Amino acid sequence: MSREYPDWISPARAAEGNRVFSGTIPMTRMKRLAPLLAGPAGEAAFVAAFKTDLDKRVVVELQVSAVVPLVCQASLEVYDQQLERSSVLGVIEDIVEQENLPDHYDPVQTERGRLAIASLVEDELLLGLPQIPRKPGLEPIKYSTGGPFQEEGQTPAGDRKSPFADLHDMIKRDKQQ
């Protein structure tokens, strides 16, 4: 683990000095992310650059990269997912200030005037996780709701009636009345 950053940072003072913090954080320190992974192995690398924009807002340019072990939901195999995230965060003291942030800033609220770098990195990794983990290179899965699997373009076996046919008939009768 590389530590070129403090646990807590005053974003205003860091922005005054145009400070840049970088390092790595082990996955075991990320309590919200750890349960979503196949194992706690690895670490996340980050660079956080603090500055002020033209409107004198404190801004953090955050870049995060990590390789995280996930369980593929199609094959149930563990695979390594590369995550690369880059965000521009607008620092706010109170949730009300969020309305004044430009759309291209993601808001991040301080805790008593401070930010925890590890929490920012963990947030970025959580946002970068796929909703449904799927190992790259797997064959596409064909889904069917028409009973036994059918090739594309074929009609369902037998003369099954659509489950919505009765509903269609009822709507048709109501319109005629």
Low-pLDDT parts are: none
Rounded mean pLDDT is: 87
Q: Roughly what fraction of the amino acids lie in strands?
A: 25-35%
Radius of gyration: 25 Å
Shape: flat
Domain count: the total is 1
**What class, by secondary structure content?**
alpha+beta
Number of strands: 8
- For the termini, the CA-CA separation is 75 Å
Q: Strands of the largest sheet, in order across it?
A: 1-3-4-5-6-7
The ordered string of helix (H) and strand (E) elements is: EEHEEEEEEHH
Largest sheet: 6 strands, mixed
Helix content: 10-25%
How many separate helices? 3
Quick overview of this protein structure:
About 15% of the residues lie in helices and about 30% in strands. With about 180 residues, the chain is an alpha+beta fold.
Can you describe this structure?
This protein has one domain (3-128). The chain is 17% helix and 32% strand. The chain has helices spanning 11-16, 117-128, 165-176; strands at residues 3-4, 8-9, 20-26, 43-52, 58-71, 78-92, 106-109, 115-116. It has a six-stranded mixed β-sheet. A two-stranded antiparallel sheet has the order 2-8. The termini are far apart.
